[in-house]
Structure formats: structure tokens, C-alpha cells
Design a protein that fits this description.
- Its EC number is 1.11.1.6.
- InterPro entries: Catalase, Catalase_AS, Catalase_clade2, Catalase_clade2_helical, Catalase_core, Catalase_haem_BS, Catalase_immune_responsive, Catalase_large_C.
- Belongs to the catalase family. HPII subfamily.
- The protein is α/β, with parallel strands linked by helices.
- It folds into four domains: 85 residues, Cytochrome C Oxidase, Chain J, CATH 4.10.91; 299 residues, Beta Barrel (Catalase HpII,  Chain A, domain 1), CATH 2.40.180; 84 residues, Catalase, four-helical domain (Hemocyanin, N-terminal domain); 139 residues, Class I glutamine amidotransferase (GATase) domain (Rossmann fold, 3-Layer(aba) Sandwich), CATH 3.40.50.880.
- Helices cover 28% and strands 14% of the residues.
- The chain has 20 helices and 18 strands.
- Strands 1, 2, 3, 4, 5, 6, 7, 8, 9 and 10 form a ten-stranded antiparallel beta sheet that branches. The protein has a six-stranded parallel beta sheet with strand order 15-12-11-16-17-18. It has a two-stranded antiparallel sheet with strand order 13-14.
- The longest helix is centred in the middle third of the chain and has 18 residues.
- The N terminus is likely disordered.
- The structure holds CIS-heme D hydroxychlorin gamma-spirolactone (HDD).
- CIS-heme D hydroxychlorin gamma-spirolactone binds next to strand 2, strand 3, strand 4 and helix 10.
Length: 704
């Protein structure tokens, strides 16, 4: 009875939370290093009298074994680390909610998709793939985009990436892909970089990776911020409604902040200036109330639509262009709370594509099917016990009950005699324990299966490896195409084996002979013959929606931008105040950068503190830069390499630069030439802060 009551209470608490949007986040009970009275204690609750000195035989004597406080503290410290994720080890995460715009009851019975306006708590972890947990934030790498929805019918994990396709078609090849991509087995380098022999050796031998390679070499793998990238579920999934009807679906996350990337040279310099650049950016945005937001978009289709496409929707190396199948925006994802503890939440969160709720189901995509096994399995190795679901970040926020028992680190205390089902020890729901729910429980979509032999075979419909690679490359803006060509030249220039370079370029001839020619020229090698293609590529209709530059989502507003303003003694006080006001109005952040942080004396005699010192705040960490120097300030900074570099890099990275007239000598020394993106410190400067000026690029670097 008591059990039933407790269950009812839990259920009604859940009811109360429906649609209110408040208190969506269950707080983890805080366990500080002290007891309720503020005393420091051991893990056994014994108050610690001295946390500075070990117990010794005399002031200069040996340490005594009986010092249990010492032994416990060191013992625990020695075991603080857990294995990092085999992939996606480096991640940053935040809490938030998903809010539904309209009921999707027509296509899915999933509880979170029923009531317009309802909010579901979420936890989102972004990651790089190849680097270790301590690696930098801005390598050229795919970004993970994993969302855990704590729905009222259990957890749904949408474990996606910021690229809508994948390298391989079959999960059996995943260990090979990752071994090839990560640091080389014998030498342990390079870390978090694909620019090495083994990666490109594998890629050259796996033509199915070519489409993904085009994305990986594009600006998509250099996102400016985690908040300016798209997310994709990649595979085709199914939605299933209350009548049991199935609709295929592809999931998209569209960033409200727009799409923005860095330039390679910039990404490399950010890695040195601030290895935690994206983690810090996510955290500080949320701290200052600039909550990152994405819209959930669905591409919905049926078997008849799928059968007309010239590619297979079960093939994860293919996408369906938005122009062919428009995206229906059905809700928004808002990240509004930082984690309280990085380890307990970001590190211990365990995602699994097999976590689906009634109304969402899998397709037969062979990559997805393999993933369904891998994630649960890896968590056991990483988190050490089959009870990892009990960790607060992983536990569902709805009641859950079954007869799974015991195991290492069991923290639940299940009551009652029966730990098996069926049992007749009590009336269902009482002492006898939980029972099946044939109507509301998860049932798999009853897909009719073909009567075919068991075999290891790749379907013919998966054989075209080049048409979509061509579609992507040719859909890009000219500047982006140049970035792709240059990225491949860069990466292959790091490849020491000539036959590997040559094989990759031979594959790319199938994608676009002009691209291959540009790359061959950039590498200083003859253009090889096209590699034999299983299926000759066809020209699909181009999809401008795939672009960042000049694409539908290209960032052009200053909202959310971080602008660096270089000031020094004598800087015009009115100008600083006006820029601060304008930035605030544009919802941008203005950071003052000065040779000394403590105090800068402005033109009116007032003193102001800078937010960052020049040497530690190069322009790569800002979206746009201003140079508000007086004539004397300019003169003294003309001898400062960091100040010259500040302007030079901003120009080289095609950013908007605003400068006072008196700063002109500094611009001249930095090689900043007049163009549309170089302005005075008036209104245009702040308005353009979110824009890049790619027309400038041919002036500052040779692209392939
Ligand atoms: Fe995976 C983690 C995304 C294919 C096996 N994967 C992982 C994470 C993301 C993805 C975002 C990090 C989750 C987190 O933040 O904790 N993975 C993908 C996508 C794929 C994909 C979008 C293709 C469409 N993955 C894939 C395959 C396999 C795995 C084919 C294995 C057969 N992935 C894993 C894993 C990881 C993982 C080994 C490592 C850590 C973890 O699971 O929790 O199980």
C-alpha cells in the first residue's frame, strides 16, 4: 500500500510539472565536503580535526599507518579517474528543455510529442570525436550532438552529429575507422587530427566515406561556437502513431544563432590561445543568460517517397536535400542551465541510441543497428557497473521499476520478497511488484520482413559513393569550395605515403575533376586517373541549403557575438561608452582588451578596468574587433607585436574591424587594407560584427 502511495505521489509530481516549464530540472542532492553543520568529515562521517598534517611519530618522525583520514583521502584520490570514452571523449554539456510547437499525434504517439507548448527536460552533450578528454576544442573534427530527453515515458536519446551523413555504411567497420583516425598505434600521435597516413589510407580504400570526407574537409568541422552549428540524427528513424502507422523521419537541429565557422588558421591559433574555447563559450553564454537555442526539424516521408529516390534512405552516407523534402519545424531546444559538476554530469552521462520511447522506432540502417549494441556495452566499461542508469544524470525522471537486481554499486534498495515475474505473492502493483503494460508499453513497429537468405552482403542500392559527394561540393559557395580544396591539400600534405595521397585524389576525380585538379596542383602531383567506381556518379540537383556561406542559415546578425575592443591610456571615453551601449542593444558582448587589465585611463580622466590583457586575448577569440586607440596609444602599441597581430589576424580571418582614425598607423603596419569590413567605430561596426568578409580572402592567403 505504502509503495503504491509513493508511486502515486511520484506520478502526480510528474503530472504537476506538465506544461509549466518551471522546475523541470531535478536537482541532484548536493554532497559537499562537509556535514550539515559545515564540518569537514571522512566518508564515514567522522569529523576531521586537522586537514593539513599527517599523523606522525613526533614532529619529524615517520607517518603512522593508523592515519585513516590520510589513507582514505589518498585512496579516493588515486581512483578519481575513469576510462574516457573511446570516441567523443572531449565534451561539454548543459541542461535545458525541449518545447513542442504543435502536437505531432498524427505521426507519433510519443508522449513528448503530444501537447503543444509542453516542455521536456533535456541534457545535451557536444563533443569532438578523435581527441582525448583533455584535448583542444577546435581541431578539424566532426562534433557530436547528443540529446537526452527525460520524457514522462522514459528517456529518449538522440545521439547525433553536426554532419548529416557518416563515413561508413556498416557498423562492422566502425572500429577500423576509429583506429585509423585516432593517433597511430605505434607512435601515439597525432592526437585529435585526421591529417596523417593511417586515416587517409583507410579513407582511400573506403570510397563510401567520400561524401562524409567532403563534409569533414568543409567549414562544418570548424564551428565557431557549439551554438552556431546544426545537429542531425543522421539515420532514418521511424515515428509510430497510436494506430500503429509508421512514418520515416530524419531529425535536424537548426541553430537560432545561425551557422558560423572559423577559418583553419584561426582554429589553429585558438587552440593555442584558449584550448577550452568552445567549452568556455558555452558555459559563459549560459551564465550571462544568452541561452543557446535550436529548432527541431523533421523530414517526414513514407516508403513510396523513399522508393523514388535515386539512393537508399537506409544508407547513412546519404542525405535528403531540404529542397526535395522540406523540414517541418516542430519545437525548440533551449539550454538554460550549466552543469553543477563536470564529472558527475558531463563525464558520467551515458547516451544510447537504443534508448527510444513508445512512438519512436529504428529503421534497418545497418550502421544504426550496430550502434544499438555498442553504447550500452561501452558504458559498462566506462562507468564500471551495469547500474550506471542509477546515476542521477542517467536516471529517468519518470518512475521506473523492474526486477533487475543487485550488481556492483547497487544504490537502490528494492523492497519485498518477489524479485521475479510472474509471481503470485501480491496483488499486481502491490507487494508482487510491477507488471507488463501491453497497451502503453513499447512495442516494436511490426515491419513485414522479406523472406530472404541470411547473408553478409551490401545492398546494391548502397553502391553509389560519389553522386552525393558531388552534390555537396558543387552546392557550396565558391569560398567554401576553396576551403575544402585547401583542407584536403593540407591534410594530404601531412601524409607521407605517396600511394595514399594518389589513391585519395583518384577517388576525388569521381566527385569533381576540377576539385581533384586543384588538389593535385596544391600537392604538386600529376592528376591521377579516376579510380574505378562501382556506380558512375550522376548529377543530382544542387542544394544551396547545404551551404554555410550565402546559405539560408549564415550568421549575419551581431546577436550573441563577442567583440574585442582594444583600448589603452588616452582612448576616447565617449566612444567606449557608445560602443558599450550599441553592443548591449545588439545583444552582443563587448570585451575591453588592454595592455594592462588593472586600470586604463580614458580621455576624460576616468579609469576603467579591462576584461582581458592583450597578450592573453588575441583577436582569434573574438567575432569582430575594434581598435579604439588615441594617437599616443597607437604610437606606443606600434612596437607591440601582439597589437599588430590583433589587427592582422582579424583582417586575415575576414572579420569586421572597426578602428578610430588615430589607429590608422597600426592598421597600416598590420597590412589592413580598406574594404567593406573595415569601418570606423560607428553604428556599422557593431551591426556587421557577426559577418565575415570572404571577398577579402584571396588578398590574404592562397587557396587551392
Ligand atoms: Fe557513436 C559515442 C554519435 C556511430 C559507438 N557517438 C558517441 C557520441 C556521439 C556519437 C555524439 C558521444 C555521446 C556522448 O556525448 O557521450 N556515433 C555517433 C553518430 C554515429 C555514430 C552520429 C553515426 C551516425 N558510434 C557509431 C558507431 C558505433 C559507435 C557505428 C559502433 C558500432 N559511439 C560509440 C561508442 C560511444 C559513442 C563507442 C563512445 C562513448 C559512448 O558511446 O558512450 O559506443
Amino acid at each position: 500500500m505504502a509503495q503504491q502511495k509513493a508511486k502515486k505521489n511520484a506520478a502526480s509530481k510528474i503530472e504537476d510539472r506538465r506544461g509549466t516549464g518551471d522546475e523541470l530540472h531535478q536537482q541532484v542532492p548536493s554532497q559537499g565536503p562537509h556535514d550539515a553543520q559545515g564540518h569537514l568529515t571522512t566518508n564515514q562521517g567522522i569529523r576531521v580535526a586537522d586537514n593539513q598534517n599527517q599523523l606522525k611519530a613526533g614532529p619529524r618522525g615517520p607517518v603512522l599507518l593508523e592515519d585513516f583520514a590520510l589513507r582514505e583521502k589518498i585512496f579516493h584520490f588515486d581512483h578519481e579517474r575513469i576510462p574516457e570514452r573511446i570516441v567523443h571523449a572531449r565534451g561539454s554539456a548543459a541542461h535545458g528543455y525541449f518545447e513542442l510547437y504543435e502536437s505531432l499525434a498524427d505521426v507519433s504517439r510519443a508522449d513528448l510529442f503530444q501537447r503543444a507548448g509542453e516542455k521536456t527536460p533535456v541534457f545535451v552533450r557536444f563533443s569532438t570525436v578523435a581527441g582525448g578528454a583533455g584535448s583542444v576544442d577546435t581541431p578539424r573534427d566532426v562534433r557530436g550532438f547528443a540529446v537526452k530527453f527525460y520524457t514522462q515515458e522514459g528517456n529518449w536519446d538522440l545521439v547525433g552529429n553536426n554532419i548529416p551523413v557518416f563515413f561508413i555504411q556498416d557498423a562492422l567497420k566502425f572500429p577500423d575507422l576509429i583506429h585509423a583516425a585516432k593517433m597511430e598505434a605505434d607512435r601515439g600521435y597525432p592526437q585529435s587530427a585526421t591529417a596523417h597516413d593511417t586515416f587517409w589510407d583507410f579513407i582511400g580504400l573506403m570510397p563510401e566515406a567520400t561524401h562524409m570526407i567532403m563534409w569533414a574537409m568543409s567549414d562544418r568541422t570548424l564551428p565557431r561556437s557549439l551554438t552556431t552549428m546544426e545537429g542531425f540524427g543522421v539515420h532514418t528513424f521511424r515515428l509510430v502513431n497510436a494506430k500503429g502507422q509508421s512514418t520515416f523521419v530524419k531529425f535536424h537541429w537548426k541553430p537560432k544563432a545561425g551557422l558560423a565557422s572559423t577559418i583553419w588558421d584561426e582554429a589553429v591559433k585558438i587552440a593555442g590561445a584558449d584550448p577550452d574555447f568552445q567549452r568556455r563559450d558555452l558555459f559563459t553564454r549560459i551564465e550571462r543568460g544568452d541561452f543557446p537555442e535550436w529548432e527541431l526539424g523533421l523530414q517526414l516521408f513514407d516508403e513510396a517517397f523513399a522508393s523514388k529516390l535515386p539512393y537508399d534512405v537506409l544508407d547513412p552516407t546519404k542525405l535528403i536535400p531540404e529542397e526535395i523534402l522540406p523540414i517541418r519545424k516542430v519545437g525548440r531546444l533551449v539550454l538554460d542551465r550549466n552543469v553543477d559538476n563536470f564529472f558527475a554530469e558531463t563525464e558520467q552521462v551515458a547516451f544510447c541510441p537504443a534508448n527510444v520511447v513508445p512512438g519512436i522506432d529504428f529503421s534497418n540502417d545497418p550502421l544504426l543497428q550496430g550502434r544499438l549494441f555498442s553504447y550500452l556495452d561501452t558504458q559498462k566499461s566506462r562507468l564500471g557497473t551495469a547500474n550506471f542508469h542509477q546515476l542521477p544524470i542517467n536516471a529517468p525522471k519518470c518512475p521506473y521499476a523492474n526486477f533487475q537486481r543487485d550488481g556492483m554499486m547497487q544504490t537502490a534498495v528494492p523492497k519485498g520478497r518477489a524479485n521475479y515475474e510472474p509471481n503470485s505473492l501480491g496483488v499486481a502493483g502491490e507487494a508482487g511488484g510491477p507488471r507488463e503494460c501491453p497497451t502503453t508499453g513499447f512495442t516494436s513497429y511490426a515491419e513485414p520482413l522479406a523472406d530472404e537468405p541470411k547473408q553478409r552482403i551490401r545492398p546494391e542500392s548502397f553502391a553509389d559513393h560519389y553522386s552525393q559527394a558531388r552534390l555537396f561540393y558543387r552546392s557550396l559557395a565558391a569560398a567554401e569550395q576553396a576551403h575544402v580544396a585547401s583542407a584536403v591539400v593540407f591534410e594530404l600534405s601531412k601524409v607521407t605515403l605517396e600511394h595514399v595521397r594518389s589513391r585519395v585524389v583518384a577517388n576525388l576525380v569521381n566527385v569533381d575533376p576540377d576539385l581533384a585538379q586543384r588538389i593535385a596542383a596544391g600537392l604538386g602531383m600529376p592528376l591521377p586517373e579516376a579510380s574505378p567506381a562501382q556506380v558512375l556518379p550522376i548529377d543530382l540537383e544542387l542544394s544551396p541549403a547545404l551551404r554555410i556561406i550565402e546559405g539560408p542559415l549564415e550568421k549575419d546578425s551581431s546577436k550573441g557575438c563577442v567583440i574585442g575592443l582594444l583600448i589603452s591610456d588616452g582612448t576616447d571615453a565617449k566612444e567606449v561608452a557608445a560602443l558599450q551601449k550599441a553592443a548591449q542593444k545588439a545583444c552582443a558582448t563587448l570585451m575591453l582588451v588592454a595592455p594592462k587589465v588593472g586600470s586604463v585611463k580614458l580621455s576624460d580622466g576616468s579609469a576603467i578596468q579591462a576584461d582581458a590583457q592583450l597578450a592573453g586575448a588575441p583577436s582569434v577569440i573574438f567575432d569582430a574587433v575594434g581598435i579604439a586607440l588615441s594617437a599616443s596609444g597607437t604610437q606606443s602599441l606600434l612596437k607591440e607585436a601582439a597589437a599588430i597581430q590583433f589587427a592582422m589576424d582579424a583582417f586575415g580571418h575576414c572579420k569586421t574591424i572597426g578602428a578610430s582614425q588615430a589607429a590608422q598607423p597600426l592598421l597600416d603596419k598590420a597590412g589592413v587594407e580598406p574594404d567593406d569590413g573595415v569601418t570606423d567605430l560607428g553604428a556599422k561596426f557593431i551591426q556587421q560584427a557577426g559577418q565575415r568578409h570572404f571577398d577579402r580572402e584571396p588578398k590574404v592567403r592562397t587557396l587551392a
